[in-house]
Write a structure and sequence with these properties.
Blueprint (H helix, E strand, L loop, with lengths): L5 H11 L6 H13 L2 H17 L1 E2 L6 E2 L5 H4 L4 E8 L3 H8 L4 E5 L17 H11 L3 E4 L5 H14 L5 E4 L15 H9 L2 E2 L2
Parallel strand pairs: 3-4, 3-5, 5-6
Antiparallel strand pairs: 1-2, 6-7
Helix pairs in contact: 1-2
Bound molecules: zinc ion.
Length: about 200
């Protein structure tokens, strides 16, 4: 659009970078933001600014929280013998909802040959160092039950088993190809309850 204002074009470009937002949606959102009250639009801008200033990545588990170490790492009442490995910080809320009381480690993604994501692109070395230092009795690999999540669990298990801890995986009750973000709380609770050994 040669005749469109450069600042509008810039906003459309920024929105288009967001996951799941194509060029048409980006354009629609940009014009929505121009149409609503200035104050309402600025609330969104300020919310982004505030969350980026307030939220940190936990130096122990890579969870996102207002404090580092995060509130879960700092909570002495949690079961330190159990470490649950998740792909994404969003999944922690799901496990909290079903009453999990151990600790977490966030990988920051999963291994993918297609996308060129290697173990060193995730928090793999931090996980191995943490397991060697804290010696949890059990490490449960709670990556998603899809092809890449299963592959990630396999690679991590190969590295964790020699460290001497019990390595488990969520039960097979999770529908294959589903994601932890989507399954119901009862299925997720069953998947933790019925976890199987990979050691
Ligand atoms: Zn933490």
């Amino acid at each position: 659009m040669a005749n469109r204002d450069r600042t509008i074009e810039n906003l459309i470009e920024q929105l288009n970078r967001l996951p799941g937002i194509g060029p048409k949606s980006a354009e629609r959102l940009a014009f929505h933001l121009l149409r609503i009250d200035t104050e309402e639009a600025l609330q969104l801008a300020r919310a982004i600014e505030q969350v980026r200033a307030a939220v940190k990545t936990c130096s122990r588990c890579s969870n996102l929280d207002a404090q580092d170490p995060c509130s879960i790492c700092m909570d002495g009442s949690r079961d330190a013998t159990m470490l649950l490995v998740v792909e994404d910080p969003r999944e922690i809320a799901r496990f909290e909802d079903v009453g999990y009381k151990g600790r977490y480690h966030v990988l920051g993604g999963r291994l993918s040959q297609l996308e060129g994501i290697r173990p060193e692109d995730l928090t793999t070395s931090q996980l191995l160092a943490r397991v060697q230092k804290d010696k949890p009795a059990e490490v449960c690999l709670a990556t998603n039950p899809d092809l890449e999540g299963e592959g990630t669990a396999r690679v991590l298990a190969e590295r964790l088993v020699p460290l001497g801890c019990k390595v488990t995986r969520l039960a097979r009750g999770l529908p294959a190809g589903s994601s932890i973000a989507q399954v119901s709380a009862s299925i997720l609770a069953d998947a933790i309850e019925g976890r199987r050994s990979l050691s």
